[in-house]
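Apologies for my clumsy wording, but can you show me some protein sequence, whichever is easiest, together with the matching structure tokens, please?
=====
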Amino acid sequence: MTSRSERLGRRLLAALTLSVVLSSTIQAASAHEANKRVADANALVSNDAASRPPPQSTRRPVARAEKGPYYVDFRARTAASWGHAFVWYGKTSERAVEVAGLTPKGDTWTYVLGHLTWVPSETGASYGDLDPDYLTANYRVYLNESDAKRVFAYIKKLQESSPVWNAETTNCTGFIGDIAEYMGLKVPYRWQRPENFVNSLKEINGGRQMVRLSAE
């Protein structure tokens, strides 16, 4: 009887042991399979991401016009006849401006005579140069400090060396054309209406806003 009970106990113990071993084996196999699936999924995602091109930014670059602390503004205004061309120049942070242009000195008779011969000139501000209501065209160009010193000095020298005015030769468009040429800008045909000259000056230079002078 005892021997039979012992045999039965051994069988139950063996069955229990086998059950535990099988359970552990199945769990290990399941865990291995799960880990394998996770690894395969990660590899698939990595390969897919690597094959895709990197996302491109949808932000567009903002074009900023380069500007310097000084400027020369080529301007045209209305007048009793053809109009007048001149320049403003100065520092962008200041409201005060310098004005330079070439006009006949005196009254209407001097202006009429200037169509036949040379007459005395004035090279500073004339009536209407500071009034925006008379403005018909303008083209502003910016300069750094060192270039501005050279250009402003040239304008002063040009004023001092322009004692006469003539409608056909030494006139206002020729005067500001000399300034533009010194600054390295392309200069259109000079003997045309001031408004057309300033607009042409801007057009042939592509609206260029910043000028850098060549080395002296």
In short: The beta strands are 70-77, 84-91, 98-101, 103-104, 119-122, 135-143, 164-165. The first strand starts at residue 70 and ends at 77.
